[in-house]
Every structure is written in C-alpha cells, then in structure tokens.
Amino acid sequence: IRTETKAEVMEINEKGVRVRRNGNLEFFEGDTVILAVGMKANNEIKSRLEGKVKQLDVIGDCAKPRRIKEAVEEGFEVGIKV
In 10 A of CB 17, how many CB atoms? Predict the structure, then answer.
C-alpha cells in the first residue's frame, strides 16, 4: 500500500494514477486507487435559500465539516422538530 499526499489527481486509468505535485507530473502504477480529499464546508445552498423559506436549519457539512456521526445526529435533531 502506497500513500501519497498533497497531490492533484490528473488522471486515473487501468494502469494507475497520474498526479501533479509541486508542478511536476508523476505516475503511480496500481490496480486500485482510493481518494481521501479532505473536508470543506459547502454552504452555498444556505445562502441561496436564506430569506426564501420559512425555516432553514443548517446541518452537516453545510454548517462545518465534521464526521458522519455529527451530521446524522444533527439530522435527527432537526427531523424531530418538524
């Protein structure tokens, strides 16, 4: 198992994955590629819906990036209020 960090995936094909890191292209051979791309809040929908709906509850990664456990708990809490 090989772990690579801070690389931009350019292509995944049947022989492996091509990445760009620090301006250089690299190719890693392999038959399986697993991507872990980090976490970033996506609250675009919040700004698009604010003022247009009666109630807006912001949960999960829309609020801030966390783990699935927190998102499920927040979804449950909002769901029982409805």
Answer: 19
CA dist., res. 72 & res. 59, Å (int): 9
Amino acid at 34: I
State the SS3 of 31-66.
CCCCCCCCCCCCCHHHHHHCCCCCCCCCCHHHCCCC
Confidence of residue 68 (pLDDT cuts 50, 70, 90): confident
Give the pLDDT score at 40: 78
Euclidean distance between CA atoms 39 and 36, whole angstroms: 9
Q: Predicted confidence band at 12 (pLDDT cuts at 50, 70, 90)?
A: very high
Does this model's pTM top 0.85? My answer is: no
Yes or no: say if 58 and 50 are a contact pair by the CB < 8 Å rule: no
Q: What is the rounded distance in angstroms from the CA atom of residue 61 to the CA atom of residue 80? A: 20
